[in-house]
Amino acid sequence: MIFFKTVVFLLFMIFFAGCNNAVCDISDVQATVVFDFRAEDEKPECRTCVFVQTQENAWKTAEITVFDLNSDYFWRVENPVLLSSKAGDWAGCTNLLGENGKVLSCGDYRIFYKNASGEEAEADFSISYPIDFLALSAADFPKALERGSFSKKIAVYDENGSLIFFAPLENDSSSAVREKFVDGAFMRVCYVDNLKKYACFMPPVSLSKN
Description:
The protein is mainly beta. 10% of the residues lie in helices and 43% in strands. It has 2 helices and 13 strands, in the order αββββββββββαβββ. The chain has helices at residues 2-15, 174-180; strands at 26-36, 45-54, 61-68, 74-77, 81-85, 88-96, 107-115, 120-127, 150-157, 163-167, 186-193, 198-201, 205-206. Strands 1, 2, 5, 6, 9, 10, 11, 12 and 13 form a 9-stranded mixed sheet that branches. A hairpin with a 4-residue loop joins strand 11 (186-193) and strand 12. The longest helix is centred in the first third of the chain and has 14 residues, at 2-15. The model is unreliable at 17-23 (pLDDT under 50).
């Protein structure tokens, strides 16, 4: 689905050289809950993205396993998403869901990392987000963010769903964005928690001149 693919790509933009003899050790864990609003009057679809950074090349990753320390649930990712950025190499999953397809609960988790040589490492992390967002609609934003600290960004996509711009804009009206990006097919407003714990993607807005 095109909207899911573009949301995943945006998360790479928001949050994110190894050497052959690097130690298998976890440097950082980034867990972000995505609230994906598809329509103004609908509740969001939610998923959790979890990425781990190690001191070795991410392409050596064999699998990662995430444990919920408050229950018996765990998630084993045998084909993790791998990516490189200026912040280093990362491996993880963009679509972790809990029981009955629900978003993962707030709380404490542990991640286990295994590389291709069978070496392992582990680290604890937490998931945190405003639980009431699960019952809100896109029409409740940005007012729902008044108590938090966030940044507003504009994502612009071409007709194939490829991201062509993602950053704050002084004038983010659809008409202004249409004039600035002649190849833009649709746009989405994105509210990102400054602690990178959650991100809220508003419904797509067409940039068609018709």
